[in-house]
Amino acid sequence: METLFPMNSNRIFTIYACDICLKHFNGSSLAYQRHVAKCLRVQPPGKLVFSENDLAIFQIGNKNFTMEQRIYIKSLCRISRLFVDSKKNIDDT
Q1: Per-residue pLDDT, 37
Q2: pLDDT value, residue 1
Q3: Each residue of 29-44: pLDDT tens digit?
Q4: Burial degree of 72 (CB within 10 A; 0-12, 13-18, 19+)
Q5: Mind telling me which residue stretches traverse the membrane in this protein (predicted)?
Q6: Alpha-carbon span 43 to 5, nearest angstrom
Q7: Which one is predicted more confidently, 87 or 42?
Q8: What is the mean pLDDT of residues 44-54?
Q9: 26, 33 in Cβ contact below 8 A?
Q10: Nearest-angstrom CA–CA distance, 80 and 56
Q11: Are the CB atoms for 12 and 26 separated by under 8 Å?
Q12: pLDDT greater than 60 at residue 92
């Protein structure tokens, strides 16, 4: 069975994810902190459709996804599968 977040050890219980690009880091807060300091993104990919206080909702979707959007969507699905057991990606086998 393929794991959602490949890890070197089954004993890693913390997954860090960048708030903007959703790149994930398994159990390495140092790698996460380095990434956050260098991440060039200022917002998630897509069109901002709603913003109020600390909440922003972005729409990602049309018939021609960019590679960046595909990677972001896949990362979002992986994270959501940690909380929703029935979540299934189309490309999962």
Answers
A1: 93
A2: 39
A3: 899 999 999 998 888 8
A4: buried
A5: none
A6: 23
A7: 42
A8: 91
A9: no
A10: 18
A11: yes
A12: no
At residue 64, the pLDDT reads 80
Q: In this structure, what token pair is assigned to residue 67?
A: 């590679």
Residues 6 or more apart whose CB falls under 8 angstroms from that of 90 comprise none
> How does the average pLDDT of the chain come out, rounded?
80
Q: What single DSSP character describes residue 68?
A: H
Q: What are the backbone dihedrals phi and psi of residue 77, each rounded to the nearest 5 degrees, phi first?
A: -65, -40
Q: What is the pTM of this model?
A: 0.69
Two tokens, residue 56: 């922003």
Tell me, what amino acid is at 44? P
Could you write out the three-class secondary structure of 22-52?
CCEEECCHHHHHHHHHHCCCCCCCCEEEEEE
Tokens of 57: 């909702």
- Long-range CB pairs of 15-20 (<8 Å, 24+ gap) are 15/82, 17/75, 17/79, 20/44
